[in-house]
Amino acid sequence: MVFRLTHELVFPDPRLADADGLLAVGGDLSVDRLLLAYSHGIFPWTSFRHFDELHWYCPHERFVIFPSEIHVSHSMRTLIRKQPYRLSINEDFHGVIGQCGRLRLHEEGAWLGPQMTEAYERLHHQGFAASVEVWAGSRLVGGLYGVTIGRCFFGESMFSLVPSASKLALIHLARVMEANGGVLIDCQLETPHLRSMGGRYIPYDDYLRLIRTE
Predict the structure, then answer these.
(1) Which of 135, 141, 168, 186 has the fewest CB atoms within 10 Å of its CB?
(2) What integer best gives the mean pLDDT of the chain?
(3) Torsional class of 164: left (φ above 0), alpha (ψ -120 to 50), beta (otherwise)
(4) What is the pLDDT of residues 171-181, one digit of tens each?
(5) In which element (H, E) is residue 35 found?
(6) In angstroms, rounded to a whole number, what is the distance separating the alpha carbons of residues 94 and 128?
(7) What does 142-172 look like in DSSP terms, one character per residue?
């Protein structure tokens, strides 16, 4: 069953989502609604060219990476030792989300349109979204961004303009989180890329317990 949201700041029980994770349509992208959504593992994901209303998802099984379990291949270890790139956090959130949107703009089902971009920019300005950047000199060549609540990072998108840049960003994120008590990185959807780096599925109830860890 798919629910229709109203102006009221509330979501239905995420366990009622369809098999593909679709839970609700409608609502808005206010900071308060987004924070409520992510605190329950719900995220907006809408093909902005095909649908006027927002679609909200909450998969029953969650694909996550635990920071301590990040897999660093031999080739990535070699690349890290060579240090050809500089890594940073929150130096250019606008640049990272802009690149993520531009690189996927013409893909079928592209979801990171102007409305969504502006919403995550607002979250960032209030301290609830963060970016990791990969630099070649002064050029931004890779990175990722996501929502940050408590000790969890809810990944949204990543990009690479040079080989392995997004992998470097993810490894840097995991290492920083591990060093600072981070609990998990929510990948939202499985990809071969993320599975190769340590991603695995956990049940929703386990996931919910972890993202509510104080």
Answers:
(1) 135
(2) 92
(3) left
(4) 999 999 999 99
(5) helix 31-38
(6) 14
(7) EEEEEEEETTEEEEEEEEESSTTHHHHHHHH
Predicted confidence at residue 52, as pLDDT, reads 74
Q: If you search the block for the tokens 């392995």, which residue do you land on?
A: 164
- pLDDT over 70 for what percent of the chain? 93
Q: CB under 8 Å to 62, separation ≥6 — which residues?
A: 41, 186, 201, 202, 203, 204, 207
Give every CB contact of residue 125 below 8 A, 6+ residues apart in sequence: none
> Long-range CB contacts (< 8 A, 24+ apart) of 143-146?
143/92, 143/95, 143/96, 143/99, 143/169, 144/96, 144/100, 144/169, 144/170, 144/173, 145/93, 145/96, 145/97, 145/100, 145/120, 146/185, 146/186
Contact, 70 vs 173, CB < 8 A? no
> Which residues does 105 contact at the CB level (< 8 Å), separation at least 6?
none
**Nearest to 60, CA basis, from 112, 11, 20, 102:** 20
Which tokens sit at 53? 């209303």
